[in-house]
Write a structure and sequence with these properties.
Blueprint: H1 2-17, E1 32-38, E2 44-45, E3 51-57, H2 63-68, E4 70-76, E5 84-85, E6 88-90, E7 93-100, E8 103-110, E9 125-132
Antiparallel strand pairs: 1-9, 2-3, 3-8, 4-5, 4-9, 6-7, 7-8
Keywords: Signal
Organism: Pedobacter insulae
Protein name: DUF1735 domain-containing protein
Length: about 140
């Protein structure tokens, strides 16, 4: 009986000794968030009267960000209480973004398939740009 208990204790000890907890932390660069307020006067209507646009300076978007990271853009009409992620369609207008080095362009176009002018934001809007760190594995 002693031998059987001793053998079971040895097997249990070997099993517990072989378990190892590994903590792997890959993220070395934290995600970054930039919040900008855009005045209603910052929107420009294109010459064909079909698109309102604004260009936001976001120097945090560099070539590394464009090549390796994700850039998400959100817009809020209620001072940040709620956000809509772009692109989206709101009423009859389609919102989209063009992201380039140091800039985020937001376009508002009519989405009703007619040559109608989109609705310009009448008050200040808040834009949140989120840069998500990622490792390029290609």
């Amino acid at each position: 009986m002693k031998n059987l208990t001793l053998i079971l204790l040895c097997i249990a000890s070997l099993g517990l000794a072989s378990c190892q907890k590994d903590t792997i932390i890959n993220q070395t660069t934290p995600n970054r968030t930039i919040v900008l307020d855009v005045a209603s006067s910052a929107w420009t209507l294109t010459s064909d009267n079909l698109t309102y646009y604004t260009i936001l300076n976001v120097p945090e978007i560099d070539q590394f960000s464009l090549d390796n990271e994700a850039v998400l853009v959100y817009i809020s009409y209620d001072n940040g209480a709620t956000y809509l992620q772009m692109p989206f369609v709101y009423n009859v207008d389609a919102y989209s973004t063009v992201i380039s080095k140091g800039k985020v362009e937001i376009d508002i176009q009519s989405s009703d398939n007619q040559a109608t002018q989109p609705i310009k934001p009448t008050g200040n809007v808040r834009v949140k740009v989120v840069l998500i760190a990622a490792e390029n594995v290609t």
